[in-house]
């Protein structure tokens, strides 16, 4: 059985992290106001994810990216579980903008549809950007969970 480990990213890994995000047209990380993790399978880098502080009451869980050779091993579950459990921010609402087909996956961690909740402007703008025809071929949905 393959061993999956999660570690907090260091600032000097930011260039590599952003090169991976660039591969899938994800927004780059800036490190400030972010908690970024790197997943490894048997000591080989297998995926990344992050929490981004939006303001004093909101953070965004995103940038969950499992590299193609490591899909189907449970890497994404380890990343999301770590981000939710080790969240260093004292915020009350965690927002998530996954592809629609992943809604059930995020529901396992307590995320639910939040289209009827007051959405921070930064999240609403990003959702609109994600769903514009020129960015992703798949629909992105709005989910959230409160601590």
Question: What does this molecule look like?
Answer:
- The protein has 147 residues and is an alpha+beta fold.
- It has a single domain, classed as Gcn5-related N-acetyltransferase (GNAT) (Aminopeptidase, 3-Layer(aba) Sandwich).
- Helices cover 24% and strands 30% of the residues.
- The chain is globular, with a radius of gyration of 15 Å.
- The N and C termini lie far apart (33 Å).
- The mean pLDDT is 92.
Summarize the helices and strands and which ones pair or pack.
Elements: E1 4-8, H1 14-23, E2 34-41, E3 44-55, E4 58-66, H2 75-85, E5 93-96, H3 103-107, E6 112-113, H4 121-130, E7 143-146
Parallel strand pairs: 4-5
Antiparallel strand pairs: 1-2, 2-3, 3-4, 5-7, 6-7
GO molecular function, one term: acyltransferase activity, transferring groups other than amino-acyl groups
InterPro entries: Acyl_CoA_acyltransferase, GNAT_dom
Protein name: N-acetyltransferase domain-containing protein
